[in-house]
Amino acid sequence: MTENSPIAVITGGAAGIGWSIGQRLLADGYRVIATDVVPGFTASSDDVLWRELDVTDHGQAATVFDGIVAEFGQIDVLVNNAGIQRHRALEELSWAEWEAVVNVNLHGVFNTLQAGGRHMLERGEGRIVNISSVSARGSAGRAPYSTTKAAVIGLTATAGAEWASRGVRVNAVAPGYVDTGVFRQGVAAGTLDVDTILSRIPAKRLADASEVAAAVSFLVSDDASYMNGQTLYVDGGFMVDYGIPLAKKPSP
Q1: Cβ–Cβ < 8 Å for 76, 6
Q2: How many C-beta atoms lie closer than 10 Å to residue 137's C-beta?
Q3: Do the beta carbons of residue 71 and residue 49 sit within 8 Å?
Q4: The whole model's pTM is what?
Q5: 190 found inside a domain
Q6: Which of the residues are catalytic?
Q7: In angstroms, rounded to a whole number, what is the distance separating the alpha carbons of residues 220 and 1?
């Protein structure tokens, strides 16, 4: 990494999937700036820069991205990874829980997509990846999360259609179940059951965060130069299997 290295900004970059994406892009030669609401990193690296950002604050998003461009001259890659969950049956879900998830997972993506995208459009070049989820197709107990992740796919497609001719590519990655601290917290809290989840995944394992990061790395590379507005699923086959196993023929 040098002062002339391309600049990658990752929201929600202090831990988990966001942290792994930052490490992958760092290895790819980017100068990585991770943004988050936490003060610093829960993981550590001397090479990743940090900027405090609450993605739900539209004005702050614009200010932070303006500041990054003023300091580094440009933003080459933006990964919109910041997200939260609230597990609750739909009829018991509070307005505060609904609003919190929508504000981060949807409004937050819009705020940073717009703030970063404007600078890219001005340059006529840039690559954006929004992080969605397999939960976009619906997930019991996760109404706000599923709703927002589906909306991110629609927002990605719209931005891709609008900005393709202006040099900015926008795509999404939709991970399946990933072995992160957040996932393990869900297991400990009893909101996730590992055996049930693994039984629904054809690959019969969780994803490693580095596998999600590899998909992001591909989408921002020149190898994906003709991809725009697309959603790439990294899910071990979850989305292509509706849970009915192949019937075994009786023995002769």
Answers
A1: yes
A2: 13
A3: no
A4: 0.92
A5: no
A6: 145
A7: 17
